[in-house]
Amino acid sequence: MRFDVEDLSANELFFEEEMMAALSQTSPQRLGADDQAEGLRRMLVSNQTQVITLVAGKQGVGRTGVTLNLAAALAGAGRDVLVLDENPAPHNLTDSLGLFARHDLLDVVQGRCQLQDALLSGKGYAILPVARLMRALENLNQPEQHNLEKVLSGVSAGVDVMLVDAAMLTGAAAVSTSLAAGVRLVVVMEATPSGITESYALIKRLALENARLRFEIVVNKVANEQVARLAFGNMEKVARSKLAARLEYLGCIPLDDRLKRATQLGRSVVEAYPASNSAKSCMVLAQSALQRTMQQDEMEGGIAQIMKNLIAQLVRQHKMAFESMHN
């Protein structure tokens, strides 16, 4: 389902002259020592797994790459990280690392393998393919739903941060954890007219259809932070006035040659080129993500509860659709 974006004018969301002026600036994003200490303190006093779902309004903005590099940066900071890959091969996170998944979460839920058979190893973090499970989610029987909740509760044990590389929400039938209540949403966008417009359309859909009013924003493939903050600021104003939605700037990742090369090598830029500007930005992004205070609905039940909520939500939607067709 597509939304009209007539409430998005070029003047509101993309000021070309301001963007050109910002391009001449090269000041990197920085995180103060006090901010870093506060972020670390919050993590040390809490054993609650943070579930962060990364979404994008269109293909090609680098959502999977941001997920990969954020996972590597968090792992490098000493966090136990698990990535749920909602996207089918090819061109998903698993494929980008040159990994082959013989089994996935659906196999585990249906008893065809053990959890350890489905987990894949990244550089300091684990990956669990869940694309087939998401497509079959609403058709799981009660024993399978129970198994799913049990498996997700078990796999979350000892995990500090769980990242979800969310599937694109193309069409009304799309199923993703990004649609569930209690999800911390990070929107990956580009500082381009189409990137901003499509990101706003996604935010509008989630705000109107799913009552989501809090979004964190990562600006990817950007020249510098001033351009990123300008793009964010324009969209934040429109979202606040038109949707009453709260947008928070999480960070940005510059596009440099090292990032491109790391992608070609099937590695994170944090691992391959730790001294590069993009790697440093990913580390700052990881610290910024750790600093964010979890909302109450994001803390209750973790990923197991999120999936349970999503199943119940899908059942309600189908029931309402069925009733509307027969009334």
List the helices and strands and how they pair.
Elements: H1 10-13, H2 16-23, H3 33-44, E1 50-56, H4 63-76, E2 81-85, H5 93-96, H6 105-109, H7 115-118, E3 120-121, E4 126-129, H8 131-136, H9 142-156, E5 161-165, E6 184-190, H10 193-210, E7 214-222, H11 225-243, E8 246-254, H12 257-265, H13 269-272, H14 277-291, H15 296-299, H16 302-325
Parallel strand pairs: 1-5, 1-6, 2-4, 2-5, 6-7, 7-8
Antiparallel strand pairs: 3-4
Relevant terms:
8 strands, 50% helix, 16 helices, Rossmann fold, alpha/beta, 8-stranded mixed sheet, 327 residues
Walk me through what this model shows:
- The protein is globular, with a radius of gyration of 19 Å.
- The chain has 327 residues and is α/β, with parallel strands linked by helices.
- It has a single domain (48-293, 300-325), classed as Rossmann fold (3-Layer(aba) Sandwich), CATH 3.40.50.
- It has helices spanning 10-13, 16-23, 33-44, 63-76, 93-96, 105-109, 115-118, 131-136, 142-156, 193-210, 225-243, 257-265, 269-272, 277-291, 296-299, 302-325; strands at 50-56, 81-85, 120-121, 126-129, 161-165, 184-190, 214-222, 246-254.
- The protein has 16 helices and 8 strands.
- The model is unreliable at 1-6 and 37-46 (pLDDT under 50).
- Helix 9 runs antiparallel to helix 16 (302-325).
- The chain has an 8-stranded mixed β-sheet with strand order 3-4-2-5-1-6-7-8, with helices on both faces.
- It is 50% helix and 15% strand.
